[in-house]
Write a sequence for this structure.
DNA sequence: AAGATGCAGGGAAGCGCTTACCAGAGGGCG
DNA sequence: CGCCCTCTGGTAAGCGCTTCCCTGCATCTT
């Protein structure tokens, strides 16, 4: 069957108006919301015509005519990563509850690409951009990103950052430091003394905050762990696996606790432990961060810090819609979740 | 700091042309790709002006003027589910490699909502729609969906379905039946005799195919399992957990193998087994489907069927771009992955 | 009863862009 | 040297829609 047989361009408002025997203005007013009232009979005729022609308004044209869009641009580092997909889920749900269109770009954890994506997104003249960051401590990149975002705001757009505070835009920040700190205090109190942090990439801010929070927490508990060190690696499962391997290859006493800065890395670390014939939890306690849904049933259950990821997404959209006068910062609390991977805590 | 201080609308092509002292047409031709050649000096002036003004073309306006967009609409059931997020990842990567804009909608596994999303998407006049389905065996819904999609194609759009064959559109189908069949044959040969299928929702086509493939595979192995039954439940972790519970509550001999129609359900089932004091793998073998990345390190390792999910996404975009004359069907192969959760297989 | 007021429809301008078409310049050719 | 072709810049007509503004009519006011 040839597919182009019945090709026929979509009905326009003009078509509807003609069909209904009214003016373009009237058709527009009845179909696409206006403060103006239109006569019930006309209204009915327009509605019927629209239905008959299968009219669907052309959003692009509306955007051009109105001078604003209902689009929200989302940028995430990696949609495949449950951390991002949960936040993105929240954003998408919230956007289409607000009748907004969500456009998505994936930076692949490449800050350069992130900057380019912002610029590409701006071409769509979205009403807002939500950047779910893997922000990085690099002054030059940060300044390029900031300047792109500033330009966008100067044009009337609205930027919301999810994840990292410190930039002059509306921000949803998760309590990384506090969460990691609380976890550390409890672990320290429970008696773990040779803790190691699987810290992710050195320049990644999320990693840094969690590492820092954890170390400070240990100190605050009055049990500064002299051997407390941070091993850097990729922010992924493989990163966790590989870093754990390096740790095991080292001489000296084996750690009694490994804190990975995210759950995915923790799972990688657990796999590496098993490959070395060690039982995670029993031989080496493991803790993670994020409380990723998909990972809640790993065995032994992973002690972690829960973040309201989805809520972060929805809150971001709220901020976008209710556009405050000055940049605001919403902090979302973290909560320690104790499971079997840190037996001393039970 | 008030944010609106320096508010200034984005530069238009008109601004650029004026700044460069050339006509609109020339500016358009140099900036936004055209077959027409423009004088090097003019070109340079336009480029400089554009740079100076921070000009970013207005995609909406281009779309209106050109009568076509570079947008691709994506509809998935649940971006939080790793199955969908991996496919979506493939789609997004491929779209922006092609310079297309990806717009995303989430149906929440509600077929009604899916139909509405298609209709909403059409308002954006995307060049294509990729529907990553949880298609369902309901004639009325299917026909409404089909008719929406048909209308869209009649308008010159292009539809690609990922997941379920059988509708008159380009389709990427995973080898559910063959994959489940191959898995079943191996398990049957390995000696499992009291197999049960955790089958997901009765009306979900993916569930059906996998269940059917598995049962047929068992029969084909010459070991028709008389007790082989299918227990229905939600397609989620909780569905797996709950169905496993029902199974355990039943009288009679305990199954020696549970095949869940996806990994997430399998993990739920494993959790339920543990809660009942049973050790997955040892006491009851477990197998899943999808080989979700995040779940590759669960313990015991989950025997499953690997699907090239990301590739499915990229292939979908390829189909979209190279728009064939007649609907084509691309089948993507499944591959059995044996791990520790089915010890008899090792 | 006559002007004032309110109300809803329609005409048309305009959003930012593309592109068909026109016009002028330059070059090649017989 | 005139003709025609080619080449490139500009003009202006749209694309599908919104919305300002005008108009005619019904209603109100005194």
């Amino acid at each position: 069957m040839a597919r182009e047989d019945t090709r026929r361009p979509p009905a326009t408002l003009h078509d509807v108006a003609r069909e209904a025997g009214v003016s373009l203005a009237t058709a527009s007013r009845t179909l696409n919301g206006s403060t103006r009232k239109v006569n019930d009979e006309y209204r009915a005729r327009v509605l019927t015509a629209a239905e008959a022609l299968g009219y669907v308004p052309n959003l692009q044209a509306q955007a051009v005519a109105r001078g604003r869009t209902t689009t929200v641009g989302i940028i995430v580092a990696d949609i495949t990563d449950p951390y991002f997909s949960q936040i993105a889920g929240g954003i998408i749900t919230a956007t289409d509850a607000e009748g907004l269109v969500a456009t998505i770009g994936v930076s692949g954890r490449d800050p350069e690409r992130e900057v380019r994506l912002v610029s590409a997104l701006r071409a769509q003249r979205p009403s807002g951009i939500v950047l779910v960051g893997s922000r990085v401590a690099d002054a030059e990149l940060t300044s390029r990103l900031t300047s792109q975002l500033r330009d966008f705001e100067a044009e009337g757009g609205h930027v919301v950052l999810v994840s990292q505070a410190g930039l002059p835009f509306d921000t949803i920040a998760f309590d990384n430091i506090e969460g990691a700190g609380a976890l550390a205090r409890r672990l320290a109190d429970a008696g773990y003394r040779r803790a190691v942090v699987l810290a992710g990439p050195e320049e990644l801010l999320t990693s840094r905050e969690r590492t820092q929070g954890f170390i400070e927490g240990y100190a605050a508990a009055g049990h500064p762990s002299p051997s407390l060190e941070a091993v850097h690696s990729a922010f992924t499962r493989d990163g966790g696996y590989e870093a754990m391997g390096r740790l095991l290859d080292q001489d000296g006493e084996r750690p009694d606790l490994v804190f990975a800065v995210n759950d995915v890395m923790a799972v990688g670390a657990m796999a590496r432990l098993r490959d070395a014939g060690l039982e995670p939890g029993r031989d080496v306690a493991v803790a993670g961060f994020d409380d990723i849904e998909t990972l809640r049933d790993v065995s032994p259950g992973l002690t972690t810090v829960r973040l309201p990821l989805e809520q972060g997404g929805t809150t971001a959209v709220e901020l976008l819609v209710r556009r405050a006068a000055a940049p605001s910062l919403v902090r979302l609390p973290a909560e320690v979740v104790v499971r079997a991977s840190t037996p001393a805590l039970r």
Chain B has twelve helices and twelve strands. Chain B touches chain A through 68 residues (CB under 8 Å). Residues 67-173+310-332 of chain B form a domain with the Rossmann fold fold (CATH 3.40.50.2300).
